[in-house]
Design brief:
479 residues, uronate isomerase, domain 2, chain A, TIM Barrel, 2 domains, 4-stranded parallel sheet, 9 strands, 48% helix
């Protein structure tokens, strides 16, 4: 039997039925990713496995560095083939790391390759994948279609022109691709050089001179409106923790002017400024019926010398351990008090805080929108088997698993969509184990509806995103 077989991760008869009869056939709504929209618009064809699989993948780079692989084979000037061989040499050393599962699941689902990847199988794997990639039928768009992706949401700065999204809309494809409004750079008054360069880009994008805090908000609203016109219904923020300090417009403008003059805001000033903007952006999302995503808990760029050398998002981040509860609840409460609390998905990076968030969200459900405040799927360092189960268990015990809107790839790789399958198998196995223990009824219709809802229906009903016309049709993904 091959490693990735039909019942991979499914350890009970109930789990196997739930997965094959209910989960596997569901289409995908991938409502948070970092995939480049220009690649989809241009129907990019990938030349080799390194292009489609290793570029930008800091998960793999971290493992390679830990395996003693020189940087030139990760982000450096080694040839594409040599980089791939270096990764193949690393794979056998990733046993019990989720990369081992992901690697073989992706090779199987994309290229039908069953062989375990190692230095000995590297050449044959490279050749087989290259033959398929060079056929001319394997594009960024076809990758979405192959896995029955109905909606994909990218992550986009307010300054982005979104021309690629406009172009994608003309393709009449069986997938919809929407931008997501991610204004993280608007908060960086503690780094005035970066902040002022970004404000300059925003002025051009919004066609508005930004001389005050109010004008900054006006420009952000113009861009928010533009995103909405192109179908966007989600915003996103990558924060260490929520900002919820009381801050007036006058105070915010003082900090804004200080940053514009080239002076770095202090930590308290940055938090005051961010608090003002986060409340303003919460109002915008609420007014338009958007969903706000909060990615909390990352300690970023901890190895400063390597980040200076290689740049951000290159694999030098960690889990942070800030107090989260008070600021998170204060932020939601500030919006709730003025009737502007939008739908929110909170993603937690520190597993010690899972029950903190799972219980906090229960205090802000409004009795009108089912699952209005969501405890999002396992994220970043926690989107693996154990982390996924931790999130599912915390949500089940403290809230309603039945209203959960499921998994996202959070990926920069077009080969990442089997992560939905990975999640679905873990979910079904968890439910199957409970049935075997007598903790859940042995009722496939009851549990099957739960699985179907978590995998697809809940996200469709919650997100207010327009799906392509054929979305009522479902098919079993390639096995």
């Amino acid at each position: 039997m091959t490693f990735i077989h039909d019942d991979f991760l499914l350890q009970t008869d109930t789990a196997r039925r739930l997965y094959h009869d209910y989960a596997a056939r569901q289409a995908i709504i991938d409502y948070h990713s970092h995939l480049p929209a220009p690649d989809i618009a241009a129907q990019r064809q990938f030349q080799n496995l390194t292009e489609i699989w290793l570029e930008g993948d800091h998960y793999k780079w971290r493992a390679m560095r830990a395996n003693g692989i020189a940087e030139r084979y990760c982000t450096g000037d080694a040839s594409p083939y040599d980089k791939f061989v270096a990764w193949a040499r690393t794979v056998p050393q990733t046993l019990r790391n989720p990369l081992y599962h992901w690697t073989h699941l992706e090779l199987k689902r994309y290229f039908g390759i069953d062989a375990l990847l190692n230095q000995q199988t590297a050449q044959s794997t490279w050749d087989e994948a290259h033959a398929q990639l060079s056929s001319g039928t394997f594009t960024a768009l076809s990758a979405l279609q192959k896995f029955n992706v109905k909606v994909l949401c990218t992550s986009d700065d307010p300054c982005d022109d979104l021309q690629a999204h406009t172009a994608i809309n003309t393709l009449q494809a069986s997938v919809r691709v929407y931008p997501t409004f991610r204004p993280d750079r608007a908060l960086t008054v503690d780094h005035p050089a970066k902040f002022n360069a970004w404000v300059g880009h925003l002025e051009k994008a919004a066609d508005l001179e930004i001389t005050t805090m109010q004008r900054l908000c006006d420009a952000l609203q113009r861009r928010h409106d533009h995103f909405h016109a192109l179908g966007a219904r989600l915003s996103d923020h990558g924060l260490p923790y929520c900002y919820a300090r009381p801050c007036t417009e006058l105070r915010g403008n003082e900090i804004f002017q200080k940053a514009r003059s080239g002076q770095a805001a202090t930590r308290q000033e940055q938090e005051d400024f961010a608090s003002y903007l986060m409340l303003f952006l919460g109002h915008l999302d609420s007014q338009k019926g958007w969903t706000k995503q909060l990615h909390l808990g990352a300690l970023r760029a901890v190895n400063t010398s390597r980040v200076v050398e290689l740049g951000a998002d290159s694999g030098f981040d960690a889990i942070g351990d800030w107090p989260q509860a008070e600021e998170f609840c204060a932020y939601l409460d500030a919006l709730e008090r003025v009737g502007s609390l939008p739908k929110i998905i909170v993603y937690n990076l520190n597993p010690a805080d899972n029950y903190l968030f799972a219980t906090a969200i229960g205090s802000f459900q409004d009795g009108r929108i089912a699952g209005k405040i969501q405890f999002g799927s396992g994220w970043w360092f926690l989107d693996q088997k154990e982390g996924i189960k931790w999130q599912l268990n915390a949500l089940s015990n403290a809230g309603l698993l039945s209203r959960f809107i499921g998994m996202v790839t959070d990926s920069r790789s077009f080969m990442s969509f089997p992560r939905h399958e990975y999640f679905r198998r873990i979910l079904c196995n968890l439910l199957g184990e409970d049935v075997e223990k007598g903790l859940l009824p042995n009722d496939d219709l009851l549990l099957g509806a739960l699985v179907k809802n978590i995998c697809f229906e809940n996200a469709r009903n919650y997100l207010n995103l327009e799906l392509p016309p054929d979305s009522e049709k479902t098919r079993r993904p390639v096995q």
